[in-house]
Design brief:
The chain is an alpha/beta fold. It folds into 2 domains: 195 residues, NAD(P)-binding Rossmann-like Domain (Rossmann fold); 160 residues, Rossmann fold. The chain has 14 helices and 13 strands. Strands 3-2-1-4-5-6-7-8 form an 8-stranded mixed β-sheet, with helices on both faces. A 5-stranded parallel β-sheet has the order 10-9-11-12-13. Strand 5, helix 5 and strand 6 form a beta-alpha-beta unit. Helix 1 crosses helix 3 and helix 8 crosses helix 10. The longest helix is centred in the middle third of the chain and has 32 residues. The radius of gyration is 24 Å and the shape is globular.
């Protein structure tokens, strides 16, 4: 089986490599000449455990090559980005999907399968992709099999979850669904769940929207606790001891190309029916400013000017800064012009990021933790010894330090006292 995978980013590349590992002949296609050259030289442009070794393995077996242009194949998988448009409801921008489709149309032959893995708004596969293929002279379900098969993986565990997670196979016809299952049976050990293409699209979007809404609930609880001088983290801990309650953990916002993006694809298609989803988006979008306000309060109280941001990726142990709330906080603090700001992230390479932790913390007066990398979870009190003032604001609640010489504040518990109702906080 020969497969073209269109788009070699955080989803396309692992998908291409896993198919190649299980014996498929893969042509990975991307518009970036730099990415193509790196991959063919055995170099990886994204950070994900297991990817470098697997790339080298499938290059050695001859099952994978990268190319700027597609080739004739049995299967075409589209895994390109779908960002938000800058319209009222931040609808799905299908530019890259359409470009990918146009690029493969000259190579399509009867019997081929086209699979959309890109996250798209509901009814895109049937309403847009199907039409493009039909206009090229093919009948869907007879000449060409068209499927929407959304990815459902967690960064940091992509290769494992590609194999063991259940997979939704959304065919435009029953024959399309059947063909899609036959393709993914090559490596998927989870259940292959048959569905219509539109149901598969909406299911993927709701999986991420569910998490976004629940994180928004936790973040709203933090703001309630802040207003009422109640420890929100303790409230979450106690409430989650109820057998049917699972409040998520709060944070500085949500990011990445899923939670911060996908809910808008539903909103834009049904704006009058999505008031809850829209409210959740507003709450999570407001969290970076909430963090900025708290930083200003703490810096003013401690009469401090220098702070160090720890982590700018949107998720722990990744280099992905797409839609990162940490970046929004960094940019917002910079715009204030009040502070000397340093940044350290062991996973992200940017010109403004310090080369090591000691350089970033020496002489600093606050450590602002915005990402829960393992490298930060393992920090000890002595790691902060070079700071001018030992002040930590941990928005991810991931650093366990009990040293009384360090003033540590958590998001959801700003070290107030339940008996102290006179002042805002017990600084």
């Amino acid at each position: 089986m020969k497969i073209n995978v269109m788009g070699l980013g955080y989803i396309g590349l692992p998908t291409a490599l896993i198919f190649a590992k299980y014996g498929a002949n893969i042509v990975g296609v991307d518009i970036s000449k730099e990415i193509i050259e790196k991959l063919n030289a055995g170099e990886v442009h994204i950070e994900e455990p297991g990817i470098p070794a697997m790339l080298q393995r499938v290059i050695d077996t001859g099952n994978f090559k990268a190319s700027l242009v597609p080739e004739k194949a049995d299967v075409f998988i589209i895994a390109v980005p779908t960002p938000n448009q800058q319209d009222t409801f931040k609808s799905c921008d299908l530019t890259y999907v359409k470009q990918a489709m146009l690029s493969i149309l000259p190579y399509l032959e009867t019997g081929n399968t086209v699979i959309i893995e890109s996250t798209v708004s509901p009814r895109t596969t049937e309403g847009i992709i199907k039409v493009m293929i039909e206009e090229a002279g093919f009948n869907i379900g007879q000449d060409i099999y068209l499927v929407h098969c959304p990815e459902r993986v967690l960064p940091g565990k992509i290769l494992e979850e590609l194999i063991f997670n259940n997979r939704i196979i959304g065919g435009v016809t029953e024959a399309c669904t059947k063909r899609g299952k036959e393709i993914y049976e090559l490596f998927v050990r989870g259940e292959l769940i048959g569905a219509t293409a539109s149901a598969a699209e909406l299911s993927k979007l709701m999986e991420n929207t569910y998490r976004d809404v629940n994180i928004a609930l936790a973040n709203e609880l933090v703001r309630v606790g802040d207003a009422l001088n109640i420890d929100a983290l303790r409230v979450i801990e106690m409430a989650n001891r109820h057998p049917r309650v699972n409040i998520h953990q709060p944070g500085p916002g949500v990011g990445g190309h899923c939670l911060a993006v996908d809910p808008y694809f539903i909103i834009s298609e049904a704006p009058e029916q999505t008031t809850l989803i829209q409210a959740a988006r507003d709450i999570n979008n407001a969290m970076p400013q909430f963090i900025i306000d708290k930083v200003q309060e703490l810096m003013q109280h401690y009469q401090s000017k220098t702070l160090t941001i720890l982590g700018v990726s949107y998720k722990g142990n990744t280099d992905d800064i797409r839609e990162s709330p940490a970046m929004a906080i960094y940019n917002g603090l910079q715009a204030l012009g009040q502070f000397d700001i340093r940044v350290y992230d062991p996973h992200v390479t940017q010109s403004f990021i310090a080369s090591n932790l000691e350089e970033a913390l020496t002489g600093s007066e606050m450590a602002l933790v915005l990402c829960d990398h393992d490298a930060f979870r393992s920090l000890l009190s002595e790691d902060f010894s070079s700071m001018e003032k030992k002040l930590i604001f941990d928005t991810k609640n991931c650093i366990e330090i009990t040293d009384v010489s360090i003033n540590k504040y958590n998001l959801g518990n700003f070290n107030w006292s339940e008996t102290n109702y006179e002042g805002k906080y017990a600084f």
